[in-house]
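User: If you would, consider this record:
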Amino acid sequence: MAAETVGWWGVPLAIAAGTMRGGTPFLFVSLGECLTEKSGKINLGLEGTLLTGAMSAYAISYLTGSPWLGVLMAGVSGMALGFIHAWLTQQPKVNDVAVGIAMIIFGSGIAFFLGKPFIQPSAPQLPTFDLGGWSSISSLQEALRISPLFLLGVALAPAMTWFFKSTRWGLFIRAVGDSPDAALAMGVSIKKVRMLSIIAGSFLAGIGGASLSLYYPGIWSERISTGQGLMAVALVIFARWQPMQCLYASLLFGGAQAFGPALQSVGITQGYYLFNAAPYILTLGIMILTCSPTRTISGAPGALGSGS
């Protein structure tokens, strides 16, 4: 239908729309992981947080009729998982990666178990800004239907940049992430800063889950995340731990995710699985490019991965 209406212009149009829709969860999860890693910790469990957030948002929206209350609950559920992760990773001789894998399993299990009754029911969706009302072309109207969560995420990236550079707490987080010993000498509580950073980062990841279930694709199912929580970790590395770079990288990943469906909209079905695998291929390529043993990664917090 899109091909008949706007022809090949439908491809960039669909990619642009998909960039905003598909990039929203990437944006919130990557900003959350950026905050966590700035403090010197890594949270691989955000895939489970994303799923728990998506389930919580959908369930609360269905039960209360308020999608915004669902978004808030998604963030709260993310904070709960973040607290567990933060407490565990700061125990003696506990490995961050092992805890992250355990939290993926735990968060996913919680989401699947509690979310079973909400797979079929239809929950109220988040309102959108319909910027395409001036056009009679349905595909253009759909492409210009913008979620307030996307706009919130776009505004959050420069706000986080300012926070890290210009606030006392931003300085504490960077100090703890770059040199825990120096931060300790300044009288900064390393455990407190990391605890709050992980919890706040998990809150943002939970909001990312809400964008999946209450915006796009706007359903709750057990396969809704498709590994986006894990891909966000590679995205943060690609973005060099900079919030604004996370924004650009999220849009890139969102566009890659929309590439396959955009080609399908004009009747191109050859290479269907290859096109749909574009985000995973992009993730693999980024990991290959950024894991060279011959050079260091600029911008990496000094304590990240050191176990300190």
Summary: Residues 19 and 255 are 4 Å apart (CA to CA). The chain has a mean pLDDT of 86. The chain has one domain: 2-290.
